[in-house]
Here is the input.
Amino acid sequence: LAKTTQPISMDSYEGQEVNITCSHNNIATNDYITWYQQFPSQGPRFIIQGYKTKVTNEVASLFIPADRKSSTLSLPRVSLSDTAVYYCLVGDWAGGFKTIFGAGTRLFVKA
Amino acid sequence: DGGITQSPKYLFRKEGQNVTLSCEQNLNHDAMYWYRQDPGQGLRLIYYSQIVNDFQKGDIAEGYSVSREKKESFPLTVTSAQKNPTAFYLCATTTGQGRTGELFFGEGSRLTVL
Here is the structure.
């Protein structure tokens, strides 16, 4: 399973765009990249998933360069309620997926 | 409503006692997982099950046991052999099929050893 590296913490202000980068140098050909959000005392919640290039949904965008050795989660115009921990996961779901969560990135949005 | 139900939400245990955390799902998902989370830390995989009557150890299985007799249920027993069981425990499910997918999590159970 590919190991991921993320910044431990980030600060931002309301209304700003936030970009969180995840490094996964040994990503395998069949691996997908998935991001989760976790609030205190709750289970993580799926944000977005992608394989290459760019994926966008109503919550975020995911940018994946051609070599796929990193990915960037982009949160447009964050609000105080986006203060949470964000996890980057890399893996292949085929035949079952033994998921590994790293320490994540703690995002703190200030007013 | 479809979802994952974990119980109890809070549990206190005396040292030397076994406790069982319940995880029930009505999402018809094949795969189920148990994670442990310590304060300020990420999630660590305890056990996972891809199908009924089958389960595998995760990274920190020592001191824990599970069963998967029904598709809907994946209870976790924290035994007295677990030296530091105070933590937040999360159950998750996924369809376990195809190349993509997402994990669905329950609300968690917080275990405190007195």
Q: What stands out?
A: The two ends of chain B are 35 Å apart (CA to CA). DSSP finds no helices and eleven strands in chain B. Chain B touches chain A at residues 31, 33, 35, 41-45, 48, 50, 56, 58-59, 88, 90, 92, 94, 96-108, 110 (CB under 8 Å). The CA atoms of residues 25 and 94 of chain B lie 10 Å apart.
